[in-house]
């Protein structure tokens, strides 16, 4: 699999103290190789009637809901919240 080419840009007003040449910044364009695919279980009709607990995890931005029989739902998309 071929990777994307890097782009060299001159750094603004930064020079190497030894060579007195302008430093360069290496930038890679974004790739589409890694994507998050949410595989969330569908909540059945009336599935939240026996909801015991729900917790919002702020660091990840997800909601965990615990129902009867140790059934757990994890909401990853803000639209579902």
Cα end-to-end separation = 38 Å
Largest β sheet strand count, sense and barrel closure: 3 strands, antiparallel
* Count of separate structural domains: 1
Can you give the helix content as a percent range?
under 10%
Order of helices and strands: EEEEE
DSSP E strands, number? 5
List the helices and strands and how they pair.
Layout: E1 7-15, E2 22-27, E3 51-57, E4 62-67, E5 72-75
Antiparallel strand pairs: 1-2, 3-4, 4-5
Could you explain how this protein is built, in words?
- With 81 residues, this protein is mainly β.
- It has one domain (7-75).
- The protein has no helices and five strands.
- It has strands at residues 7-15, 22-27, 51-57, 62-67, 72-75.
- A hairpin with a 4-residue loop joins β3 and β4 (62-67).
- The mean pLDDT is 76.
In short:
The protein is mainly β and 81 residues long. It has strands spanning 7-15, 22-27, 51-57, 62-67, 72-75.
Using brief descriptors, characterize the structure shown.
81 residues, two-stranded antiparallel ribbon, mainly beta, elongated, three-stranded antiparallel β-sheet
